[in-house]
Design brief:
By secondary structure, the protein is an alpha/beta fold. The protein has one domain (11-193): SGNH hydrolase (Rossmann fold), CATH 3.40.50. The chain is built from 9 helices and 5 strands, in the order αβαβαβααβααβαα. The chain has helices spanning 2-5, 21-32, 54-65, 77-82, 86-102, 116-119, 125-139, 150-160, 177-195; strands at residues 12-16, 36-39, 69-72, 106-110, 145-148. The chain has a 5-stranded parallel β-sheet, sandwiched between helices. Helix 2 links the parallel strand 1 and strand 2 (36-39). Helix 8 packs across helix 9 (177-195). The radius of gyration is 16 Å and the shape is globular. The two termini are 27 Å apart.
Length: 203
Amino acid sequence: MILDRYRMDGKVAVVTGAGRGIGAATAVGLAQAGADVVISARTAEQLDHVAAQVDGQYHLWLQAYRPQIVVISWGALDDIHAKTPLPTFRATVAHQIALALSDHEVVLIVTPPVTKASYTEDLKSEPLYLDSEMDVARAFHNPNVYVFDVFDQMKQYLTAHHQTYVPYMADGWHPNTLGHALGGQLMFDDMKAAFGKGPIAFK
C-alpha cells in the first residue's frame, strides 16, 4: 500500500551509507517503489560490488546518473570508532549536500535507528555526530534539503511506550527486523508529513 502511494518509476536515486541500517532499508524501499538506485557504503567490505569509497566516487555518480533524489544516511558509528574529527565529519556532509544541490537534486538527510551502542558505549558521542549532521543540513536554509531524524524519534517512541532497546536489536551496532520496521515507519510518517501525496521534486 505504501509503495502504491509513492511510486518512483523512471526516477534515479543515490543512497550513501547504504551498507547497512536505515540507509540499506531506504535503498531497498526506493528500489521496490520502482526507482533505479545507486548505492554506496563507507567501506568496500560493506558493499562488495562497490569499487570505491563514497568520497572518491560521489560526484562522479551524481554526474553519471543524474538522480532526482539523494539520500544521505550516515550512521556515525563507523566515524565514532575511527575517531573522525567532528569538523571533518561536518565538512564531508556539507560537501555531499552542496554537490547534490548544485546538480538540482533533492537531499534527504536521514539519521539512523537506535542501536544498543546508542544506549551504551556511544551514549554521548553518537548524538554529537548526528546533531552535527543535522545542523549542517539545516544551515543550508534550502527548501530542497529535508531532515528526517529517525534516531531521536525512535528514542522518544521507546520512552513513551516504556520499552528498552532490547527487543529491537540484532547486535551492538544493528537493529533487527523489528527495529528496522519501526525506523521505517517513523521515516514514512515524516515523509508523508513533508510531501503528502505529491511528488518529491526540486524547487
